[in-house]
């Protein structure tokens, strides 16, 4: 069995849903199809929730009306029969009736907000599976809320997902296409919750890992993982092969094509992940597996909204136990640290979740001196195969960055990652100069200007 996930743009127009069906027909294997919300819907639903929270009920009602009109028009192009259209209209009327009832609940809590946001995937999957039914394709809709679980720390529970999903799947042995929602899940309080923005990729990988699928395919609007952020850098190209480790670093450090945690379940269960372009299905895309080609420097990514904290020990030298005390505080506030650099009496760390920053710094001050934090920083992450015996990689990177102030450098913890901390105002410049130096310079020297 395979798992195919289609993102917001891939389901965002009725004709795109028609193309997905065509794509499914080109491959005979049985599939679980994970869908995102139609592009723009999650943002619109979040805005509706925010209006409701601010008690701006008229604004919420207007936004609900506008979004519903979009869906009313969508189904007119999606379905071609009276029966199909009537079914589609019933789905829309039901879901929008539910959204209106949620907005009316006062005080409006985060529980209702999450239920509203979940509507994007609930709508897209019902409408798409309704279309498969209309054209007579063998299919069934599996509600993700029946098997996708997270724990009290918001971490997905792979074993539970496996257990529940396996027994649900056993009830549909003869269905060719099993449609389900990306992104949404239930938390330990049995409430509707989600895997955070972009979470449908993570759903696909969790399902693929849980059922030990042959392959997980992530279908999106670009021909695979590029060597750099195509929204910011002029010349980028798709990478044919990546290892799980390389892809995980890129996703975690900002390559938006994948949710940061996507690779973890696939890697754990050894299921290959293929990134494909819905608009260009013949393009090879990117294969993520145990092995990859041995190109030294594979790609660059950037992670935004980073805060750096600079901590100095107030005790004398050799203060062992200092690092432990520092990290216990981050652990207490469940705040992951991304980069660390140390000297004998100081340690600098970066975090991207500054929700508990004030409490963390207050507790650190009990035994350490703190310099003023730097907010609005950016981690530039260079990913590749940097085995210990490879020389010259840091030189190339630092040569490219010679005109950009670097606040921190981290190299050597993994064989796949060299990270630099810079102010976010230099992000675009850093990505572009690194791109030219790391991917085009040697070719330019040889008089070859084509991408590797
Ligand atoms: P989907 O809605 O299908 O999940 P996303 O918008 O989340 O799609 O992700 C695809 C987008 O990610 C691309 O259109 C591209 O602009 C962006 N992106 C950022 N970095 C990269 C990268 N390194 N390689 C490919 N795409 C990237
Ligand atoms: N619809 C959700 C979002 O926009 C999940 C996803 O698209 O992956 O974040
Ligand atoms: Mg996405």
From TrEMBL:
Biological process terms in GO annotation: homoserine biosynthetic process; lysine biosynthetic process via diaminopimelate; threonine biosynthetic process
The name of this protein is: Aspartokinase
In terms of superkingdom, the source organism counts as Bacteria
Task: Identify the pathway.
Answer: Amino-acid biosynthesis; L-lysine biosynthesis via DAP pathway; (S)-tetrahydrodipicolinate from L-aspartate: step 1/4; Amino-acid biosynthesis; L-methionine biosynthesis via de novo pathway; L-homoserine from L-aspartate: step 1/3; Amino-acid biosynthesis; L-threonine biosynthesis; L-threonine from L-aspartate: step 1/5
Q: Which residues form the Aspartate/glutamate/uridylate kinase domain?
A: 2-277
Enzyme Commission number, as recorded: 2.7.2.4
Q: Which GO terms describe its cellular component?
A: cytosol
SUPFAM superfamilies for this protein? ACT-like, Carbamate kinase-like
| Molecular function (Gene Ontology), one example | aspartate kinase activity
**UniProt KW ATP-binding keyword:** yes
| Organism name | Dyadobacter koreensis
């Amino acid at each position: 069995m395979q798992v195919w996930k289609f993102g917001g743009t891939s389901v965002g127009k009725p004709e795109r849903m028609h193309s997905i069906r065509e794509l499914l027909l080109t491959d005979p294997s049985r599939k679980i199809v994970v869908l995102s919300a139609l592009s723009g819907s999650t943002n619109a639903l979040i805005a509706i929730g925010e209006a409701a929270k601010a008690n701006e009920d008229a604004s919420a009602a207007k936004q609900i009306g506008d979004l519903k009109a979009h869906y009313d028009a969508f189904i007119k192009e999606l379905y071609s029969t009276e029966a199909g259209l009537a079914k589609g209209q019933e789905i829309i009327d039901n879901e929008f009736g539910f959204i209106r009832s949620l907005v009316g609940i006062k005080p409006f809590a985060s529980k209702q907000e999450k239920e509203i946001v979940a509507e994007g995937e609930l709508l897209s999957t019902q409408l798409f599976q309704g279309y498969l039914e209309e054209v007579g394709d063998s299919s069934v809709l599996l509600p993700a809320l029946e098997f996708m679980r997270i724990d009290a720390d918001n971490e997905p529970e792979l074993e539970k997902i496996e257990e529940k999903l396996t027994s649900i799947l056993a009830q549909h042995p003869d269905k060719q296409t099993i449609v389900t929602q990306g992104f949404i899940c239930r938390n330990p309080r049995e409430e509707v919750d989600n895997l955070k923005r972009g979470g449908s990729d993570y759903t696909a990988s969790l399902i693929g890992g849980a059922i030990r699928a042959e392959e997980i395919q992530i279908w999106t609007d670009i021909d695979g993982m590029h060597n750099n952020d195509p929204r910011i850098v002029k010349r980028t190209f798709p990478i044919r092969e990546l290892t799980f480790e390389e892809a995980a670093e890129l996703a975690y450090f900002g390559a938006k094509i994948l949710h940061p945690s996507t690779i973890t379940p696939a890697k754990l269960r050894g299921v290959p992940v293929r990134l494909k372009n819905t608009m260009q299905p013949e393009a090879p895309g990117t294969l993520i597996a145990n092995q990859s080609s041995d190109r030294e420097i594979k790609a660059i990514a950037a992670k935004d909204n980073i805060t750096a904290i600079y901590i100095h020990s107030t005790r004398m030298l050799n203060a062992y136990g200092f690092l432990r005390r520092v990290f216990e505080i981050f652990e207490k506030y469940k705040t992951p640290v991304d980069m660390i650099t140390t000297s004998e009496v100081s340690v600098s760390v970066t975090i991207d979740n500054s929700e508990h920053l004030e409490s963390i710094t207050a507790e650190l001050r009990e035994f350490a001196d703190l310099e003023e934090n730097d907010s609005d920083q950016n981690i530039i992450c260079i990913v590749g195969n940097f085995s210990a015996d490879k020389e010259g990689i840091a030189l190339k990177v630092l040569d490219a960055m010679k005109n950009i102030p670097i606040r921190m450098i981290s190299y050597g913890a993994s064989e796949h990652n060299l990270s630099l901390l810079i102010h976010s105002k230099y992000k675009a410049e850093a990505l572009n100069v690194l791109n030219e130096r790391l991917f085009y310079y040697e070719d330019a020297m040889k008089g070859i200007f084509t991408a590797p």
